[in-house]
Amino acid sequence: MFGLASFIRRNYQAIYPREVPKQDHAIRFGLLGATDIAPWTLITPAKTHSEVIIAAVAARDRKKAAAYAKKYKIPIVHSSYEELLSDPAIDAVYIALPNAYHLEWATKAIEAGRHVLLEIPSVANAEEAATLFQNPLLARPDGPVLLEA
Predict the structure, then answer these.
(1) How far apart are alpha carbons 146 and 80 in whole angstroms?
(2) For the chain, which terminus, N or C, has the lower number of CB atoms within 10 Å?
(3) Residues near 43 by Cβ (< 8 Å), separated by ≥ 6?
(4) What angle do CA 134, 139, 141 make, to 5 degrees?
């Protein structure tokens, strides 16, 4: 019986984690896309980490982004991906768009100086991988960080 109770408690806590106070220097993420995967991969886990804040969301449809922001308590809604990338309050972006858009938006985010957390698969082929992961901006000492989720 103890095993079942422990299993239920752990799963409940994974779905409904206890939120922790955020640190002043926390990484502020912007979400490119109001996607179904982001709550599982970033929004919910961020609640338990004091150094991560989900600060903004942008989607092709602003109404969808606004509804998503309300549902997940995201304070800022941007009207476009470009607007989110130009927001000086955003440190990093999470890209969970369809794979065909990964290279384009990851490159734009890197060029905007944003760190990038890119949902898998990062790109469609080896040529795109070379283009993205060998971007010279990533090699700079103060350059952004690119990670595949």
Answers:
(1) 21
(2) N
(3) 31, 54, 72, 74
(4) 165
pLDDT in tens, 36-75: 999 999 999 999 999 999 999 999 999 999 999 999 999 9
**The dihedral of CA 111, 114, 115, 117: what is its sign?**
negative
Q: What is the DSSP string of the chain?
A: -HHHHHHHHHHHHHHSPPP-PPPTT-EEEEEES--SSHIIIIIHHHTT-TTEEEEEEE-SSHHHHHHHHHHHT-SEEESSHHHHHT-TT--EEEE-S-GGGHHHHHHHHHHTT-EEEEPSS--SSHHHHHHHHT-HHHHSTT---EEE-
Q: Which two tokens stand for residue 109?
A: 């985010």
Q: What is the pLDDT of residues 103-125, one digit of tens each?
A: 999 999 999 999 999 999 999 99
Closest CA to 57 of 108, 38, 130: 38
| Distance (Å, whole) CA 138 – CA 63 | 34
Q: In the Cβ-directed half-sphere of 107, how many Cα atoms lie within 13 Å?
A: 14
